[in-house]
Design a protein that fits this description.
This protein is of the alpha+beta class and 224 residues long. The chain contains 9 helices and 6 strands, in the order ααββββαααβαβααα. It is globular.
């Protein structure tokens, strides 16, 4: 078997570092050919290659996309026009917005990680997940507290300060029931992202999160 070629080069991170230091339209326009060659095209190729392998190695129900480099500054005090990271997501086919179950790859100088789960799920889905945890606590603990899973992944996201309405404040898993996001993160590095075999590394992490994603998709009533 021939070695798997690197998906990304150190030039991707070099470009993002320079963009962070020169985050304005004039600099970006002058350097857009670099962005296309060093960032956009490799990221789109990663999405295409991953989609070919997702059905056999992870799940057949997710489609990939590259987040735009342009920031939405309409409601932000920060008016810098460009993101200084690369975001790639594989969203569930049943609901392809950012709040759907999905897998995510974040590439930023000093911050590289894979994530999966649901970020800010809509109200009914959030309630369904909480209900699944409350009524099947052993199943949830078997997934979220599995030693192999915990060795690689860390649960994160926002949480309520008080127990959600309709749930027992004394429930043994009340801290999980307070969650507003159900996200698991696996830390990576720039050297890993630019090494050969990174696509397999990413897909391997997605596969390791299968029980976690299966629980969430089941609660959200979408296939995994």
């Amino acid at each position: 078997m021939t070695p798997e070629e690197p998906c990304f080069s150190p030039e991707l991170f070099a470009f993002l570092r320079e963009l962070a230091a020169h985050n304005d339209r004039e600099w970006f326009a002058a350097n857009k050919p670099r962005y296309v060659a060093e960032v956009q095209e490799p990221a789109l190729a990663f999405v295409e290659d991953a989609e070919l392998r997702f059905p056999g190695e992870v799940s057949a129900h997710f489609a990939g996309s590259l987040f735009r480099i342009y920031r939405d500054t309409r409601f932000s005090k920060d008016k810098t026009p460009y993101k200084t990271h690369v975001g790639i997501q594989f969203r569930h086919e049943r609901n392809k917005d950012v709040h759907a179950p999905g897998f995510y790859l974040h590439l930023e100088p000093g911050s590289v990680f894979m994530a999966c789960g649901l970020w800010h799920p809509e109200r009914d889905t959030l309630h369904a997940i909480r209900t699944s945890i409350a009524t099947r606590p052993a199943r949830w603990q078997g997934v979220a507290e599995d030693p192999a899973f915990r060795q690689t992944f860390r649960l994160g996201g926002e949480a309520l300060k008080r127990p959600p309405a309709g749930f027992d404040p004394e429930h043994p898993l009340i801290e999980d029931l307070k969650r507003k996001d159900f996200i698991a993160n696996a830390a990576l590095s720039e050297s890993e992202a630019t090494a050969s075999g990174f696509l397999s590394r990413f897909l391997g992490l997605c596969g390791e999160a299968g029980e976690f994603m299966g629980f969430l998709c089941g609660a959200a009533r979408v296939p995994y």
